[in-house]
Design brief:
By secondary structure, the chain is of the alpha/beta class. Helix 1 (about 15-25) packs parallel to helix 14 (about 435-455), helix 6 packs across helix 7 (about 230-240) and helix 14 (about 435-455) packs parallel to helix 16 (about 510-525). The chain binds flavin-adenine dinucleotide and NADP nicotinamide-adenine-dinucleotide phosphate.
């Protein structure tokens, strides 16, 4: 094999580089692995500071690709030390003869894509130029210590130690005055051990971190037993889990249990000594601030119980950011260390470092001398090591330039403009939000299979399409926006490095979801990629995920329940089913008052519920019509949504129970809707409401009733309406629209269920009547201002879109929100799906605008 021209160059000989080298060899690809260090191990080669350990249990933080390893390697404890993990990496490398494939003490400095040869030319610190078809950055997410950003760092004349570049021979701090700057995982692991040696230790803390005790010891029995009993199932569960460790997700909201019970549950999690246990106690820790505060306060109470000096305990207590949005730490005696007389905590917020000096540190109004300074100040994470190499893609653009405003990747694996470049655990992949072993293996497998597919298909190049990359960026943002991560100054958000763009760098949709997406991309012929070779070009453009992640989770959960289709039920059964489902939903926000009553409908009394805001009235009023396909539902069946609109828009809602089919078929619902509207307008003042400001609103079939009521009000002398809010409305009984085909199945409201609704409600001949199909009205002018919300994955999407467009053409003031990634029902799921908040906020804003 020519050493200067290979199939694949791999940068980095950590766990990622090692496994990739093995797979490349196994499948007949020539390769070179280039590594700055003089041995394998990556993270575990560089981070030799005292106390450095893994904080994922050794039952999980290990390779799975070589089953023999499980028998020939025995981990000595639950959380392996750095030396033990390094020995493991060395063992794997020796066993599989990987050393022979690695050039050590060789830093990659540049890589240039050559469009003519369709190859990369990789340049090393040794002056070598290597050409390769494929170029893989296995450079690690936490391998580039961040540049010192503290004034005076160059002045200090004593020994300086950086946790991520610790001397191989170790450091003896005995009898020394030591400063440690930084209280992330590295600081928290090293501080207790440095304190054991030092005569005096001063810890400089900018932000306190949440830390849970490692409670190190033997491997967790339950996990070890499961592994022993059925390794394959355990590993499969890990691969499809949220974080790469099989943890049964909680289904309990934090506020759904009594405080004592919550505390017991958290105590049990605390006692497990596992990184992911505490955050997994409740289902909503990652998405709800109030839920998160329950866990945050629990940790603070633990700190108070350990640290004797209340002022120090308070300084160590994280406040102002949610638990888990900075990487939680695991410690052994960290908080206890601050009870030692020679250990002092300095809060950099009240006593900032003015400068490092020749002999120590000037901070606050003090100057202090130190014999050693330890920087535990972290890494230029995720992108640092990648953009440190001058990578020039097509047209000479560098990756660093392309990523100036944040990394853009497809799947965190590839990037437009950089053909045949792959990243392992790159930005936009779960990477640091996972057990990295699981993520590394998944990426290596995907890259290997891609290279094999290219070779088999005669392709020389692969590159994602701009559409796929933009779709992935949007999906990552959708996932991030429903979590609490984006408001915290963390390295996940690039906030630790001055000038770094603020985006959530890792993908937070979960390891399992991510794996399924990558598998789907592959199964669909590399969806979102263009592949080229002698035989031609195959461009398989598309976006792999547009559905909102929380909506997808609900659909997945419902799929597992195996519920019978509603259209297989009788109307009576369907009503009972609907009521039972409604009974288990969160109730929605509090409102000032809820009053039930009856009003005269077109053919008899109708029940209604009045939701009044807490503010003083008289309030404008929205006459609201519930969903349920004209067959089920009631004046209280959309309770959470009505409360939400009432509270957010500060308007009164009168939700009306119109007559239902098949007992009362078309036009009963329409006539009731209009009758109710007239009654509310006539009686608003006596209900304490503003009779001059009235609007209609409705969801689904209720949107149909609302739209029809607006048309009837226009045509029958009032009442005059300020607006109409139509959420995923039924507007056209012809059902000829494309969305009935595109979204026929899988999104709760199905094509066949819609047919069932129509069959119960209206004869085919009646469906073209505008009172059934408001879209088919000959004249839509003169209608009140409208907000129409349609959902991407709704069979009714196109008829809602068409109604918005037709009203606009007729001169009606229309605001049209196409809710990306939503289904017919998802926006109504108040306090269940965070992604529904923005569209509901927009609906509330529209109501406010209607009423001026
Ligand atoms: P790395 O191990 O970082 O290896 C990358 C290699 O690339 C390095 O050896 C580096 O020298 C080399 N390299 C980089 N740039 C160049 C270049 N230009 N030229 C040549 N070589 C280059 N993850 C967990 O899942 N659980 C844990 O408990 C955990 N604990 C951690 C503790 C610490 C202290 C740190 C820093 C990280 C921890 N991680 C943990 C994350 C850890 O980085 C991964 O688990 C894993 O080891 C990463 O392996 P890797 O091969 O992808 O990258
Ligand atoms: P880190 O989490 O980024 O912590 C760096 C610390 O230094 C923070 O407390 C930070 O404060 C502080 N800091 C940074 N710049 C500073 C400045 N200019 N002045 C004062 N303080 C400054 O880095 P890390 O501890 O090395 O950990 C990085 C990641 O590596 C971890 O999150 C984890 O993923 C991994 N890791 C894991 C383990 C483990 O237990 N397995 C151990 C070590 C590392 P701010 O918070 O205010 O920025």
């Amino acid at each position: 094999m020519s050493r200067s021209d290979v199939d694949v160059v791999v940068v980095g000989a950590g766990f990622a580089g090692l496994y990739l080298l093995h797979e490349l060899r196994e499948h007949g690809f020539t390769s070179r692995v280039l590594e700055t260090g003089d041995d394998v191990g990556g993270t575990w080669y560089w981070n030799r500071y005292p106390g450095a350990r893994c904080d994922i249990s050794t039952t999980d933080y290990q390779f799975t690709w070589d089953p023999e390893l499980h028998d020939e390697w025995t981990w000595s404890e639950k959380h392996a030390t750095q030396p033990e993990i390094l020995r493991y990496a060395q063992h794997v490398a020796r066993k599989h003869d990987l050393y022979s494939g690695i050039d050590f003490e060789t830093r990659v400095t540049g890589a240039v894509w050559n469009e003519d040869s369709k190859k990369w030319t990789v340049t090393t610190s040794k002056g070598e130029h290597i050409t390769c078809r494929h170029y893989v950055m296995a450079t690690g997410c936490l391998s580039m210590p961040k540049e010192p950003d503290i004034p005076g760092t160059d002045r200090y004349q004593g020994p300086v130690h950086v946790t991520g570049r610790w001397p191989h021979e170790g450091v003896d701090f005995t009898g020394q005055r030591v400063a440690v700057i930084g209280t992330g995982s590295s600081g928290i692991q090293s501080i207790p051990l440095i304190a054991e040696q030092a005569a005096e230790l001063v810890v400089f803390q900018r932000t306190p971190n949440f830390s849970v005790p490692a409670l190190n010891g033997p491997r967790p029995e339950d996990r070890a037993a499961r592994l022993k009993q059925d390794r394959a199932t355990y590993e499969a569960e890990a691969r499809l889990s949220t974080s790469g460790v099989p943890v049964v997700p909680s289904t309990t909201p934090a506020l759904a249990v009594a405080p004592d019970t919550a505390r017991e549950m958290m105590e049990a999690a605390w006692q497990r000594g596992e990184l992911l246990a505490l955050g997994a106690t409740f289902m909503d820790v990652g998405i709800s601030r109030t839920a998160n505060e329950v866990v945050s306060e629990f940790v603070r109470s633990k700190i108070r119980s350990i640290v004797k000096d209340p002022a120090t305990a308070e300084l160590l207590s994280p406040r102002g950011y949610p638990f888990g949005t900075k990487r939680p730490c695991m410690d052994t005696n960290y908080y206890e260390t601050f009870n030692l007389p020679h250990v002092r905590l300095v809060d950099l917020n009240s006593s900032p470092i003015r400068s490092i000096t020749e002999t120590g540190i000037d901070f606050g109004d003090e100057s202090k001398e130190f014999d050693s300074i330890v920087y535990a100040t972290g890494f230029d994470a995720m992108t640092g090591a990648i953009v440190a190499v001058d990578i020039q893609g097509r047209d000479g653009i560098t990756l660093k330039e392309k990523w100036e405003n944040g990394p853009l990747t497809y799947l965190g694996l590839t990037s437009v403009g950089f053909p045949n470049l792959f990243m392992i655990t790159g930005p936009g992949s779960p990477s640091v939000l996972s057990n990295m072993m699981v993520s590394i293996e998944q990426h290596v497998d995907w890259i290997r299979d891609t290279l094999i597919a290219m070779r088999d298909g005669g392709f020389e190049t692969i590159e994602p399409t701009p559409l796929a990359e933009e779709g992935w960026r949007a999906h990552c943002e959708d996932c991030a926006s429903i979590t609490l991560f984006q408001d915290t100054n963390s390295w996940y958000m690039g906030a630790n490095v001055p000038g770094k763009p603020r985006v959530l760098f890792p993908y937070i949709g979960g390891v399992g979801r991510y794996r399924r997406i990558c598998d789907e991309v592959m199964a669909r012929g590399h969806l979102g990629f263009e592949l080229s070779g002698a035989g031609g070009t195959r461009r398989n453009d598309g976006v792999v995920r547009e559905i909102q992640p929380d909506v997808e989770s609900v659909l997945e959960m419902m799929a597992t329940l195996g519920l019978p289709p509603i259209e297989a039920m009788s109307p009576v059964e369907a009503r009972a089913f609907s009521e039972a489902s409604s009974a288990v939903r969160p109730p929605g926000p509090a409102v000032g008052e809820m009053v039930d009553g009856t009003l005269p409908g077109a053919a008899g009394p109708l029940e209604y519920r009045l939701y009044r805001p807490a503010s003083s009235g008289p309030h404008p009023v929205v006459v609201y019509f519930h969903g349920g396909g004209w067959v089920f539902g009631s004046h209280v069946s959309d309770d959470p949504l009505c409360r939400d609109l009432c509270a957010q828009a500060d308007v009164a809602i009168v939700s009306v129970n119109y007559r239902h089919a098949p007992e009362d078929r078309f036009p009963a619902a329409a006539l009731d809707g209009y009758a109710a509207l007239r009654w509310v307008a006539a009686n608003a003042a006596s209900l304490g409401l503003d009779p001059t400001r009235i609007a209609v609103a409705g969801w689904s079939a209720g949107g149909n009733v609302a739209a029809v009521a607006a048309q009837m009000a226009r045509d029958n002398g009032g009442p005059e309406l300020c607006g109409q809010l139509l959420l995923t409305p039924v507007t056209d009984g012809s059902r000829q629209h494309q969305s009935h085909t595109d979204n026929a199945e899988g999104y709760i409201l199905t094509k066949s269920l819609m047919e069932w609704f129509w069959n119960h409600y209206a004869d085919p001949a009646d469906r073209s009547n505008p009172l059934a199909s408001p879209l088919l009205a000959t004249d839509l002018s003169g209608l009140p201002p409208a907000m129409v919300v349609t959902a991407q994955y709704d069979p009714l999407r196109d008829e809602g879109d068409a109604y918005a467009e037709a009203m606009r053409r007729a001169g009606v003031l229309v605001e049209h929100l196409r809710a990306k990634g939503h289904t017919h029902t998802s926006i109504t799921m108040v306090d269940m799906l965070p992604s529904g908040v923005p569209p509901r906020r927009a609906m509330a804003a529209a109501l406010r605008r209607f009423f001026g």
